[in-house]
Task: inverse folding
């Protein structure tokens, strides 16, 4: 029997109690968003439960309990005397979808991915995969929502300019394919910034492509952006100036086959932009809060998705630069470089 240090044990359990609190609070964040509770507090004025319930047409007793749970989480501020308010930073995080600090999509996506747990038990035993489309429907909307603010903040201002000569081509009028585009937010952000170019989003998941088409119509982009269901190894076209992958290459079973197809569909002077989750090459350097999130998502979603497709290479969300470079080399790309990075993403430039 190994000796137990009681102080260390209590400190560890205390840490996990914090994790229990995060798990228990996640559904209440989504509830608060759906019922407009955060939005009704966005002005920062202190409210009590009765006032918030009246503003949102909800039940006072439930709202009081929700407010206390939110305050104990540090998600709203408690003023004493039963009154609560949202600090400006909390208001941004819970109500401003345009901000990269908005956390709503993260709650939606991470809560949705936990629903796969019963199936994952079987997958661990058999080694079988679970396709992206087999996950809880909340994951599709939540993922798109989670990633979009980061794309809004970085794609046009930093990531595209970090690629050699790409902005000039797109400004003049280029042809772009966005592979594994999901709801197509990345495609539409590029299309909005570069009206002279043509954009084509592809994804293997039909419901996501349907959603992308609706978003494009709503944004008035339907005439310049086309969305079609296609896999990364079968998408159409052969003259692309730019082919992009946003947070999806590692989800694919055959990333080498996918990049080989991209190489054949690229103009000889064209570029591939790979946006992948931030990761160091050494596991020890990913043992941190961002690595925690990405490894968990990778266990529940990315690794099963890749194992469900042919080859099943299962790169994982924390593939890192060295392993991604190997994939690009195997696919025949002669140039590979890290072009840009944020705390959450690595951006690579590949040239034939
Ligand atoms: C994590 S989501 C990212 C979606 C989108 N790029 C974004 O950033 O919001 C991964 C996407 O890859 C797509 N995908 C997975 N395997 C694919 C394949 N072999 N061909 C095309 N799309 C694929 C999934 O359907 C899913 O939409």
Result:
């Amino acid at each position: 029997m190994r000796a137990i240090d009681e102080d260390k044990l209590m400190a560890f359990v205390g840490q996990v109690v914090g994790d229990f609190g995060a798990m228990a609070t996640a559904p209440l964040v989504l509830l608060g968003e759906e019922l407009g509770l955060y939005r009704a507090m966005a002005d920062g004025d202190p409210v009590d439960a009765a006032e918030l319930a009246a503003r949102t047409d909800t039940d006072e007793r439930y709202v009081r309990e929700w407010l206390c749970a939110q305050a104990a989480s540090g998600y709203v501020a408690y003023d004493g005397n039963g009154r609560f308010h949202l600090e400006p930073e909390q208001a941004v995080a819970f109500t401003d979808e345009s901000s990269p600090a908005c956390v709503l999509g993260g709650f939606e996506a991470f809560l949705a991915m936990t629903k796969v747990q019963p199936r994952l038990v079987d997958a661990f035993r058999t080694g079988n995969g679970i396709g992206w489309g087999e996950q809880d429907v909340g994951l599709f909307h939540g993922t798109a929502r989670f990633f979009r603010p980061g794309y809004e903040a970085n794609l046009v201002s930093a990531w595209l300019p970090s690629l050699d000569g790409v902005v000039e081509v797109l400004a003049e009028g280029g042809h772009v394919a966005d592979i594994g585009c999901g709801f197509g937010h990345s495609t539409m952000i590029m299309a909005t910034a570069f009206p002279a170019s043509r954009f084509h989003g592809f994804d293997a998941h039909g419901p996501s492509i349907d959603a992308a088409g609706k978003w494009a119509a709503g944004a008035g982009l339907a005439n310049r952006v086309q969305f079609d269901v296609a896999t990364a190894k079968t998408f159409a076209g052969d003259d692309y100036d730019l082919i992009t992958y946003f947070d999806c290459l590692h989800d694919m079973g055959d990333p080498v086959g996918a990049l080989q197809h991209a190489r054949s569909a690229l103009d000889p002077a064209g570029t591939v932009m790979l946006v992948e989750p931030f990761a160091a090459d050494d596991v020890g350097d990913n043992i941190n809060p961002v690595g925690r999130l990405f490894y968990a998502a990778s266990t529940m979603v990315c690794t099963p998705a890749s194992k469900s497709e042919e080859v099943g290479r299962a790169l994982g969300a924390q593939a890192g630069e060295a392993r991604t470079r190997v994939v690009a080399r195997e696919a025949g790309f002669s140039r590979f470089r890290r072009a840009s990075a944020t705390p959450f993403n690595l951006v690579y430039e590949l040239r034939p």
